[in-house]
Specification:
Chain lengths: 152, 152
DNA sequence: TCCATATATGTGTATATGCACCTATTGCCA
DNA sequence: TGGCAATAGGTGCATATACACATATATGGA
């Protein structure tokens, strides 16, 4: 029964929840001029000093080309720089600018408010547990489907 | 310490996990020509027979205008119809077409495979629990921030 | 040394998502 | 009944995300 029961679709559940949480964070971050995703990128860049596009994309569980696109507005606004690595000119290093550091600091209070508001509604302890679960999901390896006849 | 610790940002955790799960579902759904979100919309429409834009958006925890945009390719491909309600011409009713029903049925196996693959990696019981948690998050009410002085 | 291959990234296109602003109906009330 | 507020949607713009395809650089073996 209930072959089409939406409540059983894992992806739909993830998307609905993420949309709801995004709405909260983006609303509070709006005055700072940063979106949630943009702030996450800046935070990753700040923590790694300088990483390549590929490294950054992997850390964000984001498609490499999506990251390239997402970096555009950040470069345009002078928050990050993207320059070829001098040892391997195929790679590019993403670095936070002074302005990027400032913007990140400037958005800190709004982010804190979003965190507090979420955790007031959902529970701080529950939030911490859920974050761990979500990080686990983000790192999941979904193997290829079982072939009809295994070799050997 | 760790004021910028990314692992503590709830939104980032949600986004990473959702991207990962989306990648799995979209990969398996690709042959059917449907994206995960598109399938979710068709499922909701199928279950409600005919709902308005607003009702559908609320059910999907999706901004009204985002849904309008998302419906465009589905209309173009003849999977749904959107027509003014005859009793209240402000409202529009979204309905599944025969072709939409077929497409939904056609994508059923791929969706089932995605569900199975996710649950093989994450655990079926854990997935069921997580879905409940995510639905709860999607329905959260984040009140306005506490004013400095409560009335009375 | 030269070229095939592997690695790292960018571009164009399509969908996903939400905000600001605009239009069309409906309801209500003076 | 005339008109304004409330309700339901749409459009344009900007960002978010990923795939197919194209480009540039590095590497290793013949």
């Amino acid at each position: 029964m209930a072959r089409l029961d939406t409540t059983r679709c894992n992806l739909t559940a993830f998307r609905k929840a993420t949309r709801r949480v995004s709405q909260l964070y983006d609303e509070l971050l709006a005055p700072s001029g940063l979106r949630g995703t943009q702030r996450a990128i800046l935070v990753h860049v700040a923590r790694s000093q300088s990483s390549t596009i590929g490294e950054l994309a992997a850390a964000l569980v984001l498609d490499r080309t999506a990251l390239t696109h997402n970096l555009k507005p950040l470069q345009r606004d002078g928050l990050v720089t993207v320059a070829a690595d001098k040892d391997d000119r195929r790679s590019k290093r993403v670095r936070l600018t002074k302005r990027g550091e400032s913007k990140l600091a400037e958005s800190q209070d709004a982010w804190r408010q979003a965190q507090d508001r979420f955790e007031a509604a959902f529970g701080a302890r529950q939030a911490a547990e859920l974050r761990q679960t979500l990080e686990l999901v983000a790192a999941l390896e979904f193997g290829e489907p079982m072939p009809a006849a295994p070799p050997g």
